[in-house]
């Protein structure tokens, strides 16, 4: 049994020893370096571009939007974002001009000699300004996309509510801060093929973007993922921009062109998590049963649409949390502002929604004087219940198990009644969050993608996986090799991978949406099962036995003949299977579990095939002199379906939780006139190892019948619940509820002052 | 091309300072290199002090320690005499960056960089340190509290450099504390810092007190009005309240990307209250 074992990370040795080659480790003799000249204003007409004297312009190659032969777009959902600005800039840092030079220094120097003049236009910099639509920057109302989901009769239900609790919550930007910054090398071949290699999550997204940009057929664009140092959504759609820039320069200058951002540029140029304002109005019975809810979410999309409609959609669907409420209306919109476009980030709209919904539960529990645990128990979803989109949950619903487990393991009830130390000016607090996250694409998404993967026998008699799912640190290669090894009776080390190259691997769909294990893992499992079936068939015809009698075990194929066990090694069997055809390869394609129904128009039905559930308990100590928060302990319990590799699953949960705690406590982008003031690791504050305490991670396995061995997607889930549990713990310690994150000492102090004034 | 001078003798460094202006002095480079990497223009001529072992000594005298300007934070943290006679300087040094920065950053660099958020500076101010300055013209001494003339401005002439720091020893009857409020547990630049040194007798009377604050004014400052409001009085709730109020009035904080004025003012008040409260309870 290899599934369920914490086998070593497949690429771990190469990464630890430095043998792994990232894009910046590739050096070609004739390579040139690309540099991007960006807007310095938030909204303006470009009135002129001057190339200043004092620089020898013959030593570099320039490119602007006029060099784009097909469509000046970053192809995604609305195709509203130009690869390079034409006459108008819509945000600071918008790319305007590209420079290629034989050295990085020369490209930098050239950029310093470009002077762009602007006629400034009024800029829309906040959600409030955008909603007022005094300045129209997108359509008539500045709204990229809106959704409404309704169930029951909300107005009548509010009439009968005994208590109504209303509050507004604010969350800001968050930067993904993958350890390796964005980087691409583009080569324009003499036959017109464009070759892209670099750091990315979704090679086929880049493939499509480059095709659109140059009007090329599929086979004329080849995209190869290099070893990638983290993504977290930040390399979902954004690498298409860098790849477009590098390709444009490579075509024009005739050299391969490398663009690798420095941290400061990556920080300002790349997408971030959407800021949001979320209002909750909830009607309850006096004993704490939800009977009516109105939730309104407004997300700041930035200057271009990118993936905002999809991010918002996930936020809307998760807006209530894993609770029952018969009468509910959720409205959501994502608006345009003259700030850099926001995009995918682990959690994808849910961390915003979850912070608001779980802090609202905290506020309700305070207002009704009901314990946070009791409030959750009264309203949580169980098997057979319906979600806000009308989806009946029929399997793998671990709600009660995760709550029970986290309470027991953290000793929550005893610790909540813990007495405060009398002499010290520090206060202890404990907070709870309870949440869920749908795995895979929303609604009919997976049906549209039809993700594929293949497995084949190698000449050495082992197995190779062909998939476009990328390894970005989360363990794709390890778990896929475990799944295939399990199917075929092999060891994970007997399984290798085809290079992640769009000319070699099928489109498995993007590496996003907590779908890699649950959806693509399932497809890989199906492909391996087909390979097994085909091998059994071929061997059976040679051995003159029934295919169904052949067992795959311990790197051997076994069957009985005349009461005797016959055994052939897998490698030998593979050789025999390929003796006639020379190869054996099986491909599988995803299909949704039976009975899944989704209506895109009414936004109702089965939003996701399954949800993963979790609960967090965070304990803190707040210094009442400085309002600094020390996180003492974090306990999480997660219903993962099945942990293919428990260590990697725990790693995902711990890592996501750390990001969530950073989101809740520290991470804040500082802005002035549309410019970012803290684009460095010294002033954009993320947690260090000293800020993060011991974590206890409980895995609960409540199998999902249509996932590989029961596994559900958990890549994003751990990002959702850390912030509200943390802020609830702070509220428990200091008595005041902070409704805006990060809950900095400054905000905690203000919340306490406000509470003192009200008292 | 940039010219980097790396003298091995102090006298040679003075000569270079006298002859090759303009010149930027590098005493470790933990602030300068970050600046240069993020686009600050690199001067044509640099004077690298790293090879001046003469400035790496720590000498003990009856009432003070003489600390060479090139002593690293790691050196201060490990030195038995500094640990014994200037424990708050050790506390401050430990909060700077992480191990790599502590191995390379120097006390002299911290002083001359002249940031109001320099972590060791409140300790030097609270202990009335004296700065020894050298040049071809000889040595002179300036009280640390007179060393800064404005935001990022010092009394150093173009041809001068800091050579040693004379730091009075903490006396056995004195109680001292260093507080740093940063943005996270490590690798943090301060929002508020306070260094306090006091003599408090058995009756809880504050015989003598010196308080210095950082990150809450254009330079590190001594809060002498607050000191006066405390000095000679017995610690009680009323004195704690007075000290808090005086401190909040005396600091001159601003709002920047790390924090805001209101928070810095409030926490400055809270920290002096904390010092008095803890000594009262002690």
Q: What does this protein look like?
A:
The complex is a heterodimer of chains A (759) and B (282). Chain A is of the alpha+beta class and 759 residues long. In chain A, 29% of the residues lie in helices and 25% in strands. Chain A contains 19 helices and 31 strands. In chain A, the strands form eight sheets. Chain A has a seven-stranded mixed sheet. In chain A, strands 7-15-14-13-8-31 form a six-stranded mixed sheet, sandwiched between helices. A four-stranded mixed sheet of chain A has the order 16-26-27-30, with helices on both faces. In chain A, helix 5 (203-214) crosses helix 6 (239-253), helix 9 packs parallel to helix 18 and helix 14 (476-488) packs parallel to helix 15 (516-543). The N and C termini of chain A lie far apart (62 Å). Chain B has 282 residues and is an alpha+beta fold. Chain B has eleven helices and 14 strands. The model of chain B has no long low-confidence stretch (mean pLDDT 96).
Question: Which features would summarize this protein structure in a list?
Answer:
heterodimer; A: 759 residues; alpha+beta; Aldehyde Oxidoreductase, domain 4; 3 domains; 7-stranded mixed sheet; 6-stranded mixed sheet; 31 strands; globular; B: 282 residues; 5-stranded antiparallel sheet; 4-stranded antiparallel sheet
């Amino acid at each position: 049994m290899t599934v369920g074992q914490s086998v070593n990370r497949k690429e771990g040795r190469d990464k630890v020893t430095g043998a792994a080659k990232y894009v910046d480790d590739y050096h070609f003799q004739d390579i040139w370096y690309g540099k991007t000249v960006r807007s310095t204003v938030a909204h303006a007409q470009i009135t002129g571009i001057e190339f200043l004297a004092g620089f020898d312009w013959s030593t570099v190659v320039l490119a602007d939007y006029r060099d784009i032969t097909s469509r000046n777009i970053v192809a995604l959902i609305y195709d509203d974002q130009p690869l390079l600005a034409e006459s108008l800039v819509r945000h600071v840092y918008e790319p305007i001009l590209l420079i290629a030079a034989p050295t990085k220094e020369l490209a930098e120097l050239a950029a310093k000699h470009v002077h762009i003049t602007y006629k400034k236009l009024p800029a829309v910099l906040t959600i409030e300004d955008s909603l007022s639509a005094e300045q129209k920057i997108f359509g008539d109302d500045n709204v990229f996309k809106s959704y409404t989901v309704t169930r029951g009769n909300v107005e009548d239900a509010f009439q009968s509510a005994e208590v109504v609790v209303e509050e507004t919550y604010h969350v800001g930007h968050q930067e993904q801060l993958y350890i390796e910054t964005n980087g691409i090398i583009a080569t324009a071949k003499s036959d017109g093929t464009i070759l892209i290699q670099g750091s990315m999550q979704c090679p086929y997204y880049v493939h499509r973007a480059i095709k659109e940009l140059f009007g090329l057929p599929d086979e004329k664009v080849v995209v190869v993922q290099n070893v990638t140092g983290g993504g977290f959504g930040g390399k979902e759609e954004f690498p298409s921009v860098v790849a477009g820039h590098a390709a444009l320069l490579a075509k024009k200058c005739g050299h391969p062109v490398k663009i690798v951002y420095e941290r400061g540029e990556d920080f300002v140029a790349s997408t971030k998590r959407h800021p949001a304002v979320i209002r909750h109005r909830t009607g309850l019975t006096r004993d704490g049963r939800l009977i009516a809810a109105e939730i309104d979410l407004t997300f700041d999309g930035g200057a271009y649409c990118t993936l905002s409609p999809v991010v918002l959609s996930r936020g809307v669907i998760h807006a209530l949390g894993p609770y029952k409420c018969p009468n509910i209306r959720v409205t959501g919109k994502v608006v345009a502002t003259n700030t850099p476009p926001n995009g995918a980030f682990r959690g994808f709209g849910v961390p915003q929604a979850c912070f608001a919904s779980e802090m609202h539960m905290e506020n309700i529990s305070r207002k009704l004087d009901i314990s946070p645990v009791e409030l959750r128990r009264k309203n949580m979803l169980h098997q057979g219940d319906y979600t806000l989109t009308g989806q009946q949950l029929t399997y793998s619903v671990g709600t009660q198990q995760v709550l029970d487990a986290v309470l027991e393991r953290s000793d929550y009830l005893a610790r909540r009644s813990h007495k405060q130390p009398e002499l010290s000016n520090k206060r202890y607090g404990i907070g709870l969050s309870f949440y869920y996250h749908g795995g895979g694409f929303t609604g009919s998404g997976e049906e549209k993608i039809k993700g594929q993967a293949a497995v084949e026998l190698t000449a050495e008699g082992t197995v190779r996986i062909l998939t476009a799912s990328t390894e970005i640190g989360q363990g794709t290669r390890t778990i896929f090799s475990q799944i295939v090894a399990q199917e075929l009776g092999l060891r994970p080390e007997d399984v290798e991978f085809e290079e992640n190259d769009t000319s070699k691997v099928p489109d498995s769909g993007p590496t996003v949406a907590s779908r890699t294990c649950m959806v693509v893992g399932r497809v890989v499992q199906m492909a391996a099962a087909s390979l097994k079936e085909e091998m059994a068939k071929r061997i059976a015809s040679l051995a003159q036995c029934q295919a169904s009698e052949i067992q795959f075990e311990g790197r051997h194929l076994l069957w009985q003949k005349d009461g005797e066990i016959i055994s052939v090694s897998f490698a030998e069997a593979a050789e025999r299977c390929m003796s006639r055809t020379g190869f054996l390869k099986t491909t599988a394609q995803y299909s949704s579990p039976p009975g899944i129904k989704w209506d895109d128009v009414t936004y109702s039905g089965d939003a996701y095939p399954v949800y993963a559930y979790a609960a967090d308990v965070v304990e803190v100590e707040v210094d009442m002199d400085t309002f600094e928060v020390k996180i003492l302990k974090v306990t999480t319990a997660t219903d993962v379906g099945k942990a293919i590799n428990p260590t990697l699953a725990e790693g995902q949960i711990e890592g996501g939780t750390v990001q969530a705690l950073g989101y809740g406590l520290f991470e804040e982008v500082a802005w002035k006139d549309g410019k970012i003031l803290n684009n460095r690791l010294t002033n954009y504050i993320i947690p260090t190892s000293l800020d993060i305490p011991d974590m206890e991670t409980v895995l609960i396995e409540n199998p999902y019948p249509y996932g590989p061995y029961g596994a559900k997607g958990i890549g994003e889930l751990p990002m959702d619940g850390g912030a509200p549990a943390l802020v609830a713990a702070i509220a428990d310690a200091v008595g005041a509820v902070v409704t805006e994150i990060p809950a900095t000492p400054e905000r905690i102090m203000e919340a306490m002052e406000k509470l003192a004034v009200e008292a | 091309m940039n010219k980097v001078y790396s003298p091995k003798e102090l006298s040679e460094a003075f000569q270079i300072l006298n002859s090759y202006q303009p010149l930027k002095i590098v005493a470790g480079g933990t602030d300068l290199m970050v600046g240069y990497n993020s686009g600050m223009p690199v001067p044509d001529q640099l004077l690298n002090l790293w090879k001046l072992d003469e400035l790496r000594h720590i000498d003990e005298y009856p009432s003070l320690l003489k600390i060479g300007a090139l002593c690293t934070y790691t050196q201060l943290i490990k030195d038995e005499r500094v640990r014994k006679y200037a424990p708050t300087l050790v506390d401050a040094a430990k909060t700077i960056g992480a191990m790599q920065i502590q191995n390379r950053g120097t006390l002299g660099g911290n002083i001359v960089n002249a940031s109001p958020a320099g972590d060791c500076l409140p300790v030097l101010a609270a202990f009335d340190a004296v700065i020894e300055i050298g040049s071809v013209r000889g040595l002179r001494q300036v009280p640390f509290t007179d060393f800064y003339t404005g935001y990022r401005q010092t009394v150093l002439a173009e041809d001068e450099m800091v050579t040693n720091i004379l730091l009075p020893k903490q006396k056995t009857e004195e109680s001292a504390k260093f507080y740093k409020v940063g943005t996270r547990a490590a690798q943090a630049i301060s929002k508020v810092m306070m260094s306090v040194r006091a003599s408090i007798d058995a009756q809880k009377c504050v015989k003598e007190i010196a308080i210095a604050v950082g990150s809450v004014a254009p330079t590190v400052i001594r809060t002498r009005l607050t000191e006066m409001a405390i000095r000679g009085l017995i610690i009680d709730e009323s004195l704690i309240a007075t000290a808090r109020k005086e401190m909040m009035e005396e600091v001159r904080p601003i709002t920047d990307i790390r924090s805001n004025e209101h928070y810095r003012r409030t926490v400055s008040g809270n920290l002096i209250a904390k010092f008095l409260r803890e000594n009262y309870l002690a």
